[in-house]
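User: My instructor asked us to take a sequence, write out its structure as tokens, and then describe one feature of it. I'm not sure where to start. Here is the sequence I was given:
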Amino acid sequence: MSFKVNLHGEMYNKMISQKNNDINTIFFKRCDVNAHLQEASSAVKIHMADDDKRRDDDEGGRNDNTVLLEPKQKLKRPSLYRVLLLNDDYTPMEFVIHVLERFFNKTHEEATEVMLHVHHRGVGECGVYTFEVAETKVTQVMNLAKEHQHPLQCVMEKK
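Assistant: Let's start with the prediction itself. The structure tokens for your sequence are:
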């Protein structure tokens, strides 16, 4: 449902059909606009009513004080992905620590802890990110490992 609000503090109580639209706009009786907007602000977005401007322009007038309130779409949180380092027998421990510090913003102590976890258990979590960030970090690690001729493997999995 859309609400038409006049910013001069007046609202009207009548139904109006738009010329080339089947959409009806509901107008309300004169009331406190600020209270209405504050109440609605958490659940609606405000944008200029282009259809109303066009209709007003066609009728020879222009009403720049009109806004259209529409219900906001509920946003879904993005899926998260774990970035994992896999153990191998050839990549030096110092290189793994360097990778963790450079790409995952770990302190030297945190990087050493993750590196030892990877070394003893075969796999270690570097961080949890959205898909695009995780994909970028995996690519950066793999490129650096390849550049230095290390077989280090970095993968991502959905959390």
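For the description part of your assignment, you could build on this observation: The longest strand covers residues 123-130. Try explaining in your own words what that tells you about the chain.
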